[in-house]
Amino acid sequence: MSVLSPFVFWAQNEKTVFLKVDLKDVKDPNITLERRKLQFWSKGVGARGLNDYAFEIDFYSNIDSEKSVHKITDNRVDFTVIKSEKGWWPRLMSQTQKPIWLKIDHDRFQSEDMEEEVADVMQDYPSLYDKLQREEFGYKKEDFKKVYLTLYNLFMYVGFMYVVCVLSVRYIKEGSDSFPGTYAAAGSAMCFLQLIQILEVMHPLFGYVKGGAFVPALQVGGRFFVLILMLEFEPRLQTMPVVFYLFMTWSAIEIIRYPYYMSQLLKKENGLLTWLRYTAWIVLYPIGFICEGVIIFRNLIFMEQDNTWSVTISTPFEFTFKFATVLRLYLLIGMIPGMYTLMSHMYKQRKLKIGPVTIKKNKIRKEQ
């Protein structure tokens, strides 16, 4: 009959190895601590209930068995094992094959200077943390948030690259004759991507990314307004050439932005990609705003001609609400402040990342 083993959690600093035996109600323990070995046997309540539990550890290096101590509590047995020589061990045991009952205690890691001060192994010793994770799992365990954001950015990059490829191939084959079919070819994909982008408003709210939700909400909301309310409900707008330029401009912005975000998540800085991220908007943002303005203005004309999206409210004074009036107000007093807010935000980000936009001026000395 095989002997049951309790779960044993370990951590270390340069001087000490810490062991936590996950065993409750320990009775009559038999513990032997030698220069390179720890033997443990006891009756207690572990993962398999009340049973006899035992394990043996052949340490990676020598320890000071006289100075090492253990403490038995109601919930566990704690060992403080003193190393004979200061230094970080690459693993706890001499053999490379780690038993399944041995785990890493990620929450218990002490600093070098103060043995009672709990440190963050992930932040203070990142290389050691990666090594411990590979020892524990056989690979580096990534944070769920990082994995999710990487996959999200990759998915969005592929989506917008698909739109660029479809429109580019059609333009190469048909030239300007491809413009009327732009929405039919890529409109569904663009609407789907735009709906997914609503998650970018939620990311800062849930702490997945830094910054506030106002700027993402302004950008996503503006695109959603133009794409869904303007284009999706007005087939006459879908065949206009401006749709091609709008889709290409939006996609050009995103196929730069999402790879940049991925490079930051993976900590792989790319100078050209960073420069494009904080420079391309200077040209692309104004083009995008102009295209959006043209679409809203053309839709305004169609609404006036057809008298659509208007509601008459019967009150003591009859009142007719026209959505065309809302579009006029947006064009007159809403669009410019929105454009200014987004471009100001990007300019501030550019100054923080690569410095302000500078224009070199040649100094002409006048000869007297």
Report, as a whole number of angstroms, the end-to-end distance. 106 Å
Question: What is the radius of gyration?
Answer: 32 Å
Strand order of the largest sheet: 6-7-2-1-8
State the total count of DSSP E strands: 10
Strand content: 15-25%
Q: Biggest sheet: strands, sense, closure? A: 5 strands, mixed
Describe, in plain words, how this protein is organized in 3D.
By secondary structure, the protein is α+β, with helices and mostly antiparallel strands. The chain contains 11 helices and 10 strands. β1 (7-12) and β2 (16-22) form a beta hairpin. The radius of gyration is 32 Å and the shape is elongated.
Set out the fold topology.
Layout (H helix, E strand, L loop, with lengths): L6 E6 L3 E7 L1 E10 L3 E10 L2 E10 L4 E10 L4 E7 L18 E3 L16 H4 L1 H12 L6 H31 L7 H15 L2 H7 L8 H19 L2 H4 L2 H25 L5 H7 L3 H26 L3 E4 L5 E4 H31 L15
Parallel strand pairs: 1-8
Antiparallel strand pairs: 1-2, 2-7, 3-4, 4-5, 6-7, 9-10
Helix pairs in contact: 3-4, 3-8, 4-6, 4-8, 6-10, 8-9, 8-10, 10-11
Give a short overview:
The protein is an alpha+beta fold. It has helices at residues 121-124, 126-137, 144-174, 182-196, 199-205, 214-232, 235-238, 241-265, 271-277, 281-306, 323-353; strands spanning 7-12, 16-22, 24-33, 37-46, 49-58, 63-72, 77-83, 102-104, 310-313, 319-322.
Output the keywords.
10 strands, alpha+beta, 11 helices, 368 residues
